[in-house]
Amino acid sequence: MDQPKIEQIVEPKDHSKKDQTFRMVHRYCTEIRMRFTKCMQDYNAYENVDAAAKYLRSKPSLLAALIAVTFAVGLPVLLFTLFAITTIICTFTVFILIEGTILAFGTIVLCGVLLSIITSILMLGTCLLCNMYGLDSTGI
């Protein structure tokens, strides 16, 4: 069978980095699609799927059983996947919230301690200066 050729994309120098990345991804996706098509043709998968579909159309009860089994097997997998994704999202969200709260609380405590230390030093210095210059100016 004729296989489509991957077209060679010549990238001019004036294209932006975004365009070059898009073209590269597009080229890789095209190559993967062509390899998949070739593999499906080599193993006669298209013909086998068509034959199975014709057989199932002639036996509706078997088709209903196949759909029920697929649903029964697929539902737990789907629910587990959704549960895992939801758990990951909630974990990261709560982690960010807790870390943000801890950082905010720590920042407030640190600012309070530093402000009290600076205020104490300034008050002590002011008192010492007032005491020293106050006593000297009165002549005592």
From TrEMBL:
Transmembrane annotation, as ranges: 63-96, 102-130
Keyword list, A-Z: Membrane, Transmembrane, Transmembrane helix
Full protein name: Uncharacterized protein LOC107224089 isoform X2
Gene source species: Neodiprion lecontei (Redheaded pine sawfly)
Gene name in the database record: LOC107224089
